[in-house]
Amino acid sequence: MPLFINTKMNQDTIAIIGGGNLGKSIALGLLKQQYNPEQIYVTRTKVALLDDLKAQRVHTTSDNVLAVQQSKILIFALKPYRIESVLKELASHITKDHLIISVISDFSLEQLSNCLTSEIQIVRAMPNTAAAIGESLTCIASKNASAENIKKATFIFDALGETIEIDESLMDAATVLGACGIAYVLRFIRAMIQGGIEIGFDAKTATKIASQTVKGASELLLQNGNHPEEEIDKVTTPKGCTIAGLNEMEHQGFSSSLIKGIKTSIETIQKD
Ligand SMILES: NC(=O)C1=CN([C@@H]2O[C@H](COP(=O)(O)OP(=O)(O)OC[C@H]3O[C@@H](n4cnc5c(N)ncnc54)[C@H](OP(=O)(O)O)[C@@H]3O)[C@@H](O)[C@H]2O)C=CC1
Ligand SMILES: O=C(O)[C@@H]1CCC=N1
Description:
This is Pyrroline-5-carboxylate reductase. The chain is of the alpha/beta class. It has helices at residues 21-32, 51-54, 64-70, 80-90, 109-114, 147-159, 171-198, 203-224, 228-233, 241-251, 254-270; strands at residues 14-17, 40-43, 59-61, 73-76, 99-102, 121-126, 136-142, 161-165.
């Protein structure tokens, strides 16, 4: 993961328009990578809710125009139903020297470019809230962005975790697997904790064991590149307790419920 400090790629001021759950996670991730706080603008209407960022010398404001005028890279992290009106308000201040990055789900590159003039370069990105700690997986897609601007966007999201370039047609799938995925995994961990308490651990110890075990399982896949079942085979002693528990989970619909949930999430995005 590149540190932002002392690199040629970190010269541009970044405005995050919409400092809510995701916008703030991105700002925190940039700060963690030692990005100069004075080169970050974060906006929202209830600006007092950004006081923790302000205390770290980030510019916080409800004035989107000011943030746009002061910045080269504009990251839009608004709810989908707000983007059109905000872009309308900002269109005359956005120039071809800006790079637009939208992390808004369910709002296409085409819809974005319809709100702006044709020469404006846009990258769509789908990070997750682990950006706050530099552990996001971000999928990016673009149509008219130059190689240099794609590199700039990739540099930012590499600093917030890892980045992969995808075709925009997969952006809803990226939203579900990567962004909603954080919530699915956390619910899995919560269930592990609940089970752990029932078999004897206090909540704090159960949380530590469940969280580190999930981290270890992920790292086994990320570092070894194995199929999950290969690692599972190493744990399931014949006639042992793991396979007994796993099979009972499957009888109760464990994998099936996850797959159905993922499909329901994408259907929810794509229903209109
Ligand atoms: N949360 C997540 O994990 C992920 C979210 N996304 C996408 O990111 C986007 C934001 O989601 P999320 O952060 O959860 O939503 P939030 O509601 O937490 O954040 C949106 C922010 O936009 C601000 N806002 C509203 N109007 C304006 C305005 N006119 N100017 C500036 N800021 C404004 C709101 O601030 P105020 O209330 O002060 O007006 C709010 O803080 C969505 O499109 C979502 O789909 C994508 C991936 C992951
Ligand atoms: O739940 C949502 O709609 C947004 C998109 C991805 C994560 N949160």
